[in-house]
Write a structure and sequence with these properties.
about 800 residues, mainly beta, 5-stranded mixed β-sheet, 4-stranded mixed β-sheet, rod-shaped, binds 2-acetamido-2-deoxy-beta-D-glucopyranose
Length: about 800
């Protein structure tokens, strides 16, 4: 029996149930999903059967074929009950009427009744979307109002129990529109009510609910995931409008200068940013590189501050679809001390005259440094040990000026080093050598090596022989230091000094112009001038004292007795003269001096050698013993007077002594003069003279023959002036000591003495005519003259031959 709780339900259902019988068939209508055992209707009653007989007649429900048996008959009550679950949706789907055919079989007699079961729908199914989630992809560029069809919700129930409406969760982007198709089925669309922006919200989540019309209604939901698809609606955006950076010059290649960055809100290709240079000078592209992808700007070439201090680069950022934006990169190059200072000599006054006053500008220096600020600030210095300094002038100019007196003779050139250092850190510096020469000024007079000079000349020197040399030095340059010597004009013994000496202007060697005679002139002084060739010239002078030394060139002169026998002087010796008594005295003088004039007397021949002696130095002749009767009355003595010179010269004289007390006893004196020995001497002399003369005659003829061809007019001039002293004192025997002046009447004549010298014949020259043009001429002529000196008349004769 039915459960008590279900009675209300059954009450309601019973209204719906209806049974219909016709021709023994019965039909029932009832809701689906009734429980097993639920009574559908009393079929026995509806068909008019006796309930008690049902059992005996084996009443049962059958199906046609092997269809399922959904219901059973209660044999006791005749009620038809549910035997199997009846799911309308399972049996009939969407068909609007769902009918199940069953049969009631009775036996005895066999009866067959058809039972029609009409299953009514119950709202037992909810609307159901095919997927739990609907994924939609909508471009952000989709316009407002665009519709997107949703998959419809399915409800297995039919009619009123199927989907009746849809609703959408409240949201700002979409609204819902429900439509029915021709079959009356409801479906939903979502309509874009507001434009999407992926960059703001890249996903929208919605829930759509489908509701059926059952009582109570059932619903089903679906989640809608709207993915907003990107549209390239954003250009890249740089992080800075201007990038300002600083990079040191000379940065190595690949140094990163700056990284530019632009972002693009779009995604994918649309948001992929690449970088490139915009309008940039070609040169800059060689200096900087830009990485397309990363935006890294790095150094590519040499960056020189001195060339360019600022670079402005225009950078373009581009996304995949070609939207662009711009930015500027300003690169300031910072200076590095990479340029050494340069020293430029703008002008240089070299050589500088050595008399330039301190402070004279000798050069202008310019220093340059291409770096800037401190790196380009240059200090200039000069080495300390030179008399120069640098005076800063305008800007980077310096004047090089002298700080002291210059002296070419001390330092003739300067090698100055100028150093320029900048103030960078580390500082750079450079040096420059400047070479100066100092020009000469004639500021030094010649200076003689000695304060005064002394020359000793032996008399009878050869004319032209050098007697001494002076030397002066002048440290000046070239002609300013070239010394020329000359004799200062003066008088020596009334004659011009040039007749005594000449000087070689170049060498300073003094030559005797003539042969000196000590007996005439013992000393004299000359002033030698040394003059340089500067203009104006400077000069100095020095005294040369010439001392003539004596030579034994004068033989003693016997004053008494008279040397030549023209007056026959006879000394009387008393017969009674005793030993040691003075009988006579030989008086002799010598023009030389000193030893050369120290005379000694000797008896070289005597008639009676033992009778007389002569005082070696006094010349006094004394008897050696008493005169005896046996002694000859006439006694002759030959006395020789010798000087003490190196090669001593001598003179002889004869003394005639008459031993008598009475002058009347004197014999012819003439006989006495013819002394055999003296005539023998004369004979020898003549022979010697003749042989020498013959020899020289031949020699001279040869010389003259040679000369004749060269020189038609020989300069020889002979003057045969021969002076024979007439008085005891020879004319040249004059005192020349002390004042050193010669007698005004002095004439430098040679004289022929009657003494022992046979070569005393001298050639005479006139001084007035005798200025010598050159030493050479002097020597030549003199050599000939000397040779001729001893020849006398023969030569004179030859010279006349030459004159034609
Ligand atoms: C100057 O001195 C420098 C070095 O001190 C040297 O190299 C140069 O040759 C010198 N110049 C002259 C002209 O002497
Ligand atoms: C000599 O000195 C003078 C100035 O006194 C000067 O003008 C001249 O140039 C100098 N000569 C030489 C060769 O230096
Ligand atoms: C010689 O030198 C002195 C000074 O040394 C001078 O006084 C004199 O005038 C000079 N004599 C001549 C002739 O130049």
């Amino acid at each position: 029996m039915m459960h008590k709780g279900l009675s209300v339900h059954w009450l309601f259902l019973s209204v719906l149930f209806w049974a219909h019988t016709a021709n023994g068939d019965v039909s029932y209508s009832f809701p689906e999903e009734m429980k097993r055992g639920s009574v559908i209707g009393n079929i026995a009653k509806d068909l008019g059967f006796d309930v008690s007989r049902l059992s005996s007649r084996k009443a049962r429900i059958d199906t046609e074929g092997n269809r399922k048996r959904f219901c059973d008959i209660n044999l006791n009550t005749g009620e038809l009950t549910v035997a199997e679950r009846i799911d309308r949706e399972g049996l009939c789907g969407k068909k609007s009427s769902c009918v199940i055919k069953q049969e009631l079989v009775l036996e005895n007699p066999l009866e067959l009744h058809s039972i029609t079961l009409r299953v009514q729908d119950v709202n037992d199914n909810s609307p159901h979307f095919g997927k739990g989630v609907i994924n939609l992809e909508i471009s952000e560029s989709a316009d407002k109002g665009k519709r997107f069809l949703l998959e419809e919700a399915n409800d297995a129930d039919i009619e009123q129990n199927s989907v009746q409406s849809y609703s959408i969760q409240n949201n700002e982007y979409f609204v819902l529109s429900v439509q029915s198709n021709s079959l009356g089925e409801k479906y939903a669309e979502i309509i874009l009510n507001k434009e999407l922006d992926r960059e703001q919200q890249h996903e929208v989540r919605l829930i759509v609910t489908a509701v059926d019309g059952g009582t109570p209604p059932r619903s089903g939901t679906v989640a809608i995931h709207v993915t907003v698809l990107d549209a390239n609606d954003n250009a890249p955006v740089f992080s800075q409008a201007v990038y300002k950076v600083s990079v040191p010059e000379n940065s190595p290649v690949d140094t990163v200068v700056v990284t530019v960055s632009a972002t693009d809100a779009d995604e994918g290709q649309n948001g992929e940013v690449t970088y490139e240079f915009g309008h940039v000078m070609e040169d800059y592209k060689h200096l900087f590189s830009l990485d397309r992808k990363t935006g890294v700007i790095s150094v590519k070439g040499p960056i020189d501050f001195e060339e360019e201090t600022t670079f402005s680069l225009r950078i373009i950022a581009k996304d995949g679809a070609g939207l662009t934006s711009y930015s500027n990169v300003i690169i300031n190059v910072s200076d590095i001390n990479d340029n050494t200072p340069i020293i430029i000599v703008k002008s240089l006054n070299s050589p500088i005259p050595e008399n330039a006053s301190p402070g004279t500008e000798v050069g202008i220096i310019n220093v340059q440094d291409r770096d800037s600020e401190n790196n380009g600030q240059v200090r200039c210095s000069i080495q300390q040990n030179a008399p120069f300094k640098l005076v800063p002038s305008i800007k980077n100019y310096y004047s090089l000026v002298t700080t002291g007196e210059l002296d070419r003779e001390l330092v003739s050139d300067y090698n100055i080093t100028i150093t320029a250092t900048d103030e960078g850190s580390p500082p750079l510096s450079s040096t420059k050598n400047i070479h100066f020469t100092v020009a000469d000024v004639n500021d030094n007079p010649p200076v003689f090596e000695e304060q005064n000079y002394r020359a000793n000349v032996q008399e009878n020197n050869k004319p032209g022989s050098s007697i001494c040399s002076v030397s002066a030095t002048d440290p000046d340059w070239r002609q300013n230091g070239t010394v020329v010597y000359s004799l200062l004009p003066s008088d020596v013994n009334g004659a011009s000094v040039s007749s005594f000496l000449s000087i070689n202007g170049d060498t300073g060697v003094l030559h005797a112009v003539r042969s000196f005679d000590y007996e005439q002139l013992r000393s004299f002084k000359v002033l030698v001038l040394a003059r340089d060739n500067g203009s104006p010239p400077l000069s100095s002078n020095v005294t040369v004292s010439v001392f003539i030394t004596d030579e034994n060139d004068n033989s003693p002169q016997i004053l008494y007795p008279s040397p030549e026998g023209n007056s026959f002087m006879t000394e009387m010796v008393p017969k009674a003269a005793q030993a040691g008594s003075l009988v006579s005295k030989v008086i002799a003088v010598d023009a030389d001096s000193g030893q050369n004039a120290w005379l000694s007397y000797h008896i070289i021949k005597a008639t009676d050698p033992g009778l007389f002696t002569i005082g070696v130095h006094s010349g006094e002749i004394r008897t050696q013993r008493d005169i005896s009767e046996s002694d000859s009355m006439k006694q002759n003595l030959i006395v020789s007077v010798r000087d003490n010179g190196q090669s001593s010269l001598s003179a002889t004289c004869a003394l005639y002594l008459l031993i008598s007390d009475n002058l009347a006893e004197v014999p012819e004196l003439k006989d006495m003069s013819h002394d055999e020995s003296s005539s023998k001497l004369t004979f020898y002399l003549i022979i010697a003279l003749v042989s020498v003369s013959t020899f020289f005659l031949t020699f001279i003829i040869i010389i003259l023959a040679v000369r004749f061809c060269r020189r038609r007019k020989p300069r020889l001039m002979f003057d045969g002036a021969v002076a024979i002293p007439s008085a005891y004192l020879p004319p040249n025997y004059a005192d020349v000591e002390g004042a050193g002046t010669l007698r005004s009447t002095y004439n430098y004549d040679a004289y022929l003495t009657t003494g022992s010298r046979t070569s005393d014949f001298k050639f005479i020259r006139s001084y007035n005519e005798g200025t010598l043009t050159s030493d050479l001429t002097l020597k030549k002529t003199q050599s000939v003259e000397n040779i001729l000196g001893g020849l006398g008349n023969e030569v004179e004769h030859i010279s006349q031959v030459c004159h034609f």
